[in-house]
Write a structure and sequence with these properties.
By secondary structure, the protein is α+β, with helices and mostly antiparallel strands. The protein has four helices and twelve strands. Strands 1-2-5-4-3-12 form a six-stranded antiparallel beta barrel. The protein has a six-stranded antiparallel beta barrel with strand order 6-7-8-11-10-9.
């Protein structure tokens, strides 16, 4: 009875087992199946085809997120590197600026040394160390004084022209009144001494930065652009130094002198180095010594 039941169950289950075996066989065949042309596994290709879009999307998200966090991590090092490069660039710019300043200073000092050959006078080079900030005075302080031979009323010049005169001296410094000061003056001539009759006197106009030339006869021809030279008659500046250039003329008449305005040729607003001329004006003879045919003995006895 039991044997017959078992055989019956076997006959009933045989088709199921056959289907299962066929399904397993199909799976094995699918796994091992290859494309005749590419010789690649068909199942694997199918799975790869289905999974490829998902893989690409996953790869893009992973790459994007990774790059984002990598950039966040590198921000600190990038900022530090930029700061280092900025400091390095600033240091190089400072070095370049200092080099340019040194070259310009050497050029100015060379021009001052050449000035000695042009004027024929001994001189003391000095650096401007201070400038009077008052609106009422046009003065500067230089870093040379009586210990270097600087004395009162010595002329101060640059390669461009006259600057002013020494008005106060200490052992190590001196104060210089600029030619633009209202109390400053100098004997001057339009053109070359001995070739022009346009004699006069220049006087400062304060903070305008100009000087005015007075007492030039209205009969003399004066034009904008004419150059002005010192005459030496003021007893401070030697003759032949450059004063400046005529920038404006109010023409005079036979009875009225010209009004002449001059821009100093020395760059007074940018003074760095100057030269003090060790110049003493020649002694003028006493009046009785200058008069001809005077019997000095008789003059004395008459007194």
């Amino acid at each position: 009875m039991a044997s017959s039941r078992t055989q019956k169950e076997i006959r009933q289950r045989a088709p199921l087992w056959l289907v299962m075996l066929l399904f397993v066989n199909l799976i094995v065949m699918a796994v091992d199946a290859q494309d005749n042309f590419t010789k690649q596994n068909v199942l694997k290709d199918g799975i790869q085809t289905v999974a490829s879009p998902v893989q690409r999307a996953t790869s893009w998200v992973t790459s994007t997120v990774g790059d984002f966090f990598h950039q966040l991590g590198s921000f600190g090092s990038t900022a530090s590197e930029n700061d280092r490069l900025s400091r390095k660039l600033a240091a190089k710019e400072l070095e370049l600026r200092n080099a340019k300043d040194a070259i310009a200073e050497n050029e100015r000092l060379r021009e001052l040394m050449d000035l000695k050959d042009k004027t024929g006078y001994e001189q003391v080079a000095a650096r401007v160390i201070a400038r009077d900030a008052s609106v009422w005075f046009n003065t500067v302080t230089i870093g040379r004084g009586s210990s270097s031979g600087v004395a009162l009323n010595m002329p101060v010049v640059t390669a461009g022209g006259i600057v002013g005169r020494v008005i106060a001296v200490s052992p190590w410094t001196a104060q210089v009144m600029l030619i633009t000061d209202e109390k400053a003056a100098a004997g001057a001539i339009i053109g070359k001494l001995g070739e022009s009759g346009a004699l006069g006197s220049v006087r400062g106009l304060g903070n305008s930065g100009l000087v005015e030339m007075r007492y030039v006869s209205g009969l003399q021809t004066v034009s904008v652009g004419d150059y002005i030279m010192t005459t030496g008659q003021d007893g401070i500046y030697p003759p032949g130094l450059n004063v400046g250039e005529v920038v404006q003329v109010k023409q005079g008449t036979a009875t009225q002198p010209h009004q002449i305005y001059i821009k100093p040729s020395a760059q007074l607003d940018r003074l760095s180095e100057v030269a003090v001329l060790l110049y003493s004006p020649p002694q003028r003879p006493a009046p009785e010594q200058a008069l001809p045919n005077v019997d000095k003995t008789k003059v004395v006895s008459d007194k």
